[in-house]
User: What shape does this take?
Amino acid sequence: MKRLTAVLAVVLASLLLFSACKTTVNEEKKDSTTTETQTEEKKDTTEENKDTTEENKDTTEANSEISEEEAWKKEPAYGKPVKIGYNGGLCTGAPGIADALGMFKKQGLEVELVKMDGTVGTVDAVGTGKVDMVTNHISAMVVPATNGINMVFKKGVQTGCKSLYVLKDGPIKSTKDLVGKSVGLPNGIGNSDHNIAIRFMNHDGIDPNEIVWKPVESSASILALQNGEIDSVILSDQFAEKFMNDGTLAVIRSLTWDDDFKKEPCCIYAFNKDFNEQNPITAKKMTAALFEVSDYIAHNVKEATQVLFDNNWASGDFDQAVRMMESYDWQCSNDMTEKTLKDILDDYKKFNIVTNEKSSDELLSELWSPEDFKHDNE
Assistant: This one.
């Protein structure tokens, strides 16, 4: 009897243990199933949220484009040709190339190229709003801009393209030899050649007041050097190249080749200030096209030069023109241009070329109005 009771006790205990284990397994299985279900639900929700986020992003971008398009239509310049002051040339030829290759049209813009009458005419035209944009030597544009001419700068064009030349076999070997001597200025005292030469002297620790400045025509400059009428002269590298090749001239200072200047934009795009402020989207689209044409020229120099020749925007020896275009850096970043403007303002203020009482930084903030674009090498 005791033995039977013991057996029954063991059997009963086993049954209770089996039942408990089964319950635990079922609970674990239930929990596992619930977790898997929740995971799947969470995964589905995440995917739905991701899709919603992408849809919202697309909608936001679409709305932004619609918003900019609608805002553009309200600008005074919308639907009208943008007037560009333009005389062609190698240094200042990029806007014509952009127009010929449809880069402005790609931005939804129509442009009109308006012939300019020299530097003074260019400054007057953009300042008075006769044209909306011009391209010119940065050294010729900074001073009138600080004197109240109604313009702002949007982008550097290219590096280069002028140097200080002397007779190769003459006594002048460096700027230090020019103290008490003369520098010829093809576009006259107080203009871009003068300003460039003053910066050369400043960088070399020479007081510009110790230099004799003389106006001279480029075409007469070689003979003037040979006759001793001038001791040196600022010339475009394109004009001087053949005289370099035949051993007549030597370079003693250069915007194109010297380390302290070769990363400075030589020319700059200036917009009428009112046009820039009243038509910000048009100005942005213009600048986008100018960045595009700069990249194009950098990678397609020969083809770009051909466009200039085909449209009579450049003339002379085609191969020489290509060499000159290749010597320039066409991909002037906003940082390069901003630094150049600051350095020029500092130099010009030092020698009272810029007489505005505001600091260089204050003037820079007023005159420099870039767009947030980059070249394909940045």
Observations:
- Confidence is low (pLDDT under 50) at residues 1-35.
- Residues 162-254 form a domain with the D-Maltodextrin-Binding Protein; domain 2 fold (CATH 3.40.190.10).
- The beta strands are 82-85, 111-114, 133-137, 151-156, 162-167, 182-185, 212-215, 233-236, 249-254, 267-272.
